[in-house]
Amino acid sequence: MTAAGALTKATPLSRRTARWLDARLGAASFVRKALDKVFPDHWSFLLGELALWSFVILIATGVYLTFFFDASVEEIVYQGSYVPLQGVEMSRAYASALDLSFDVRAGLVMRQVHHWAANVYLATTVVHLMRIFFTGAFRRPRELNWLLGVGMLILSIVNGFVGYSLLDDQLSGTGLRIAYNIAISIPVGGTWLASLFFGGEFPGPDLIERLYVIHILLLPAVIIALLGAHLALVARQRHTQFSGPGRTERNVVGERVWPTFAAKGTAAFFLTAAMLCALGGLAQINPIWLYGPFRPAEVSAASQPDWYMGWLDGALRLWPSWEIRAFGFELPTPFYPSVLLPGVTFALLALWPFLEARITKDRREHHLLDRPRDRPLRTALGVATLAFYTVLFFGGASDVLAVTFQTSVNALFRAFRTALLVLPPVAGFVAYRLCRELARRDRPGATDEAPAVAPAAPEDGASHRRAIEPEDEPERDPASTAGVPRG
Amino acid sequence: MGSRARHLRLVPVVAAASVALAALLGARAGAVEEEHDPLGYVVDRAALDDPATVAEGAELFRIGCVSCHGPGGVGSPRGPAITDAGAASAHFYLTSGRMPHAGAPDEQARRKPPAYTHEEIEDLVAYVASLGEGPEIPDVHLEEGDLQEGGDLFRGNCAACHSATGAGGALSYGQHAPSLDVATPVQIYEAMIIGPGQMPVFSPEAFSEEELNSIVRYVETLQGLGDPGGFSLGRIGPIPEGFVALVIGTGGMMLTVFLIGRRRHGEAEPPSEPVRPADASTGAGR
Predict the structure, then answer these.
(1) What Cα–Cα distance (Å) separates residue A122 from each residue in A34, A191, A348, A481, B196?
(2) Bridge-partner residues for A330, per DSSP?
(3) Phi, psi values for residue B215, rounded to 5°
(4) Which long-range contacts link A101-109 to residues 24+ away (Cβ below 8 Å)?
(5) Same domain flag for A325 and A377
(6) Is residue A326 domain-shared with residue A409, that is, in the same domain?
(7) A276, A57 in Cβ contact below 8 A?
């Protein structure tokens, strides 16, 4: 240690602690580098962070729940404080979930925050994915990180469903019953797979215990590992940025992690925590005491999965009842919408960076992002895909929509089936035209709406994007700028 | 514009939004029950055998019901025969406002405020009961029912259509199982013994009076049960929950990061961000 690093009595405790740690870990240079790292500063880059913080809240509340939840299917007689179920036979798992809701201090609010956090975590993940897709952030060299993200998305959906299925109330049992039937619809190996996983015929005696281990240990561990690699890769490869003055493929313009970006990240955390706690405290979610203990022979109207499974439920409802028998094997109806569709969906999603590179023959490295309007085909394709899954999503709510809007479920099915075929191409076409139009207005010489090109320079001064992209021109007409990101 | 004035301008918007939110999330119209008639009989059952009441009912029937149900309740192409409907049916349909029917004959009758006064309902019920052999208005004894047994029976026999929370649900081809939110104990009991519309009859061979009372008691308890978790979101499961998670939760968080983050891409480092004339003139600049 040099003389400058000598510790005296006057050195503050914080610095002495840092020195002590550095002497043993040699972490100072790493931390300094990390704190000095520059992070580009567009609001949409914080979306992934919202997902990250939701995941943190999910784990924190989940740990609290594990102290009280008892994943056992042993039948007991409920004696807790929820009167309408007193004396009713139920599994220990459901009883302990009731205890969490009525007899454990802060149990209900923790359960609710946990459940809201799961819904919001997956929603922010999907929004983050959309941002990555529409700006082309998945292109070389970030294909690996795209794969990690898709992997996390799939595992998170599975883990969300497993958590929803743990409580052994009527709703979760109904979901598991559907999952079991989907499993046995897989030709050849389906029945073996189902009985292996469920431990026999539905509902197997070991199921809840297995789901518990999967929900609190196996999948979270894998997701955390993927998440670590995801973040490490962002740091290693540096974050993408939108083009602008001084921004090139070789630099990063933005805020240093310390203090500006760290402050924003902290704000995002508190924002997430506040929103999830507000929802958990104010809005009731999954009132399992109303649903009652799971009985395989019973089912309730309006049994739906959580939103991130809604498109699968919708696909199952809207799919025509086709059955194919060939060579002694059968392809039953649930196979197509529940096995084939998600399989194709996630395969295409995972492979997209490679497919796009193959189509565009663009295999260069990209650190500058696309604006969605500058890639009209990709944007149109993304919008059409979203339209398709949105229709499926609403299809999953068909019975509730029918009652709410006093119409016929059968009419809704016909409408959704039609929309499934019609809406994606229409939405894609509209998106394509909008992109072309917006991109055209950005260009100089787009004279029909912006005749006065010449005075542009003095008004916009040095901060204009044109410094980098000469073909770019801002909108001249204030009325036409709605929806265009600006100051 | 001063920030105070701008805030004031938001007041009606916020107020309207809160009202809409409250209507959406919390409002479950409670049954306005009169103190002396908690079970919802409305009529004086002792008066139903009174010939004068029956005569008054016959008069009302000729004015309001005969066009569909036919003279003497023998039915017509537009409405079923109700000669053996009994007092229970007439009472159920009239007190829940389902009759007179508002829509087309093949449409499912919906609950609405009763069209007749209590006395008129009494007269009509007496007349319909006099037409033939039908079930009487039942004696409901909530205290004879067992709450936990009622819950088990409800989840096993009613929840498939009315949902475990009693919020109602869809049936095929535009039919629906109505919400039980505002059904009175007598109406719930009557529905089980007469089986209105698509609903099956809970016959005496299958369900004892004690079991029917148990079910009524459970539904009654469901109606009065608060929502310990906050706004009920209509008690219709994950659909409104997903809506809140996506629109309010995720939407609210996205709006906030939109406000704290930099929005314009391609700007140089900001300290001296020039205000563009377009922004200045519309007041949209920051």
Answers:
(1) 28, 30, 19, 32, 43
(2) A325
(3) -60, -45
(4) A101/A288, A101/A289, A101/B228, A102/A289, A102/B228, A104/A68, A106/A64, A107/A65, A107/A68, A108/B228, A108/B229, A109/A277, A109/A280, A109/A281
(5) no
(6) no
(7) yes
Q: Give CA B236 to chain center in angstroms.
A: 12
Residue A366 lies in a domain: no
Kindly state whether residues A383 and A318 are assigned to the same domain: no
- pLDDT tops 50 at residue A17: yes
Q: Please indicate whether, in this complex, the C-beta atoms of A298 and B286 are within 8 angstroms of each other.
A: no
Q: Is A234 exposed, middle or buried (0-12, 13-18, 19+ CB in 10 A)?
A: middle
Preferred mutation among B111, B218, B231, B265 to probe A, highest tally of A CBs within 10 A:
B265
Full residue range of the structural domain in which residue A272 is found:
41-337
In a domain, A3, yes or no: no
> Within this chain, do residues A284 and A138 fall inside the same structural domain, yes or no?
yes
Q: What is the mean pLDDT of residues B116-132?
A: 95
Cis peptide before A203, with omega less than 30 degrees from 0? Answer: yes
Q: Per-residue confidence at B13, pLDDT binned at 50, 70, 90?
A: low
Cα–Cα distance, B191 to B96 (Å, whole number): 11
Q: Which residues in B lie closer than 8 A to residue A460 (C-beta atoms)? A: 274, 276
Asked if the structure places residue A128 within a domain, the reply is yes
Distance CA A294, CA A313 (A): 20
Distances (CA, A) of A328 to A325, A331, B276: 7, 10, 72
| A427 in the same domain as A330 | no
Strands A255-256 and A38-39: antiparallel
One-letter identity of residue A268: A
A262/A140 same-domain check: yes
Cβ <8 Å between B268 and A268: no
> Inter-chain contact A460–B276, Cβ cutoff 8 Å?
yes
CB contact under 8 A, A170 and B249: no
pLDDT in tens, A274-306: 999 999 999 999 999 999 999 999 999 989 999
pLDDT band of B9, cuts 50, 70, 90: low
Provide the percentage of residues in chain B whose pLDDT is more than 70: 80
Domains with residue ranges and CATH for chain B? 31-137 (1.10.760.10)
Instruction: Calculate the alpha carbon distances from A431 to A12, A266, A375, A420, A426 in Å.
Output: 59, 35, 11, 17, 9
SS3 assignment, position A59: helix
Nearest alpha-carbon partner for A71 in A174, A167, A171: A167
Other residues' Cβ atoms within 10 Å of the Cβ of residue A84: 19
Residues A93 and A172 in one domain: yes
How many domains does chain A fold into?
2
Distance of alpha carbon B20 from the chain centroid: 18
- How many Cβ pairs closer than 8 A exist between chain A and B? 259
Asked if residue A108 is part of any domain, the answer here is: yes
DSSP characters over B200-236: PP--TTTS-HHHHHHHHHHHHHHHH---TTSB-GGG-
Q: Which CATH number is A141's domain given?
A: 1.20.810.10
A325 with A388, same domain?
A: no
Chain B nearest C-alpha distance from A170 (Å): 9
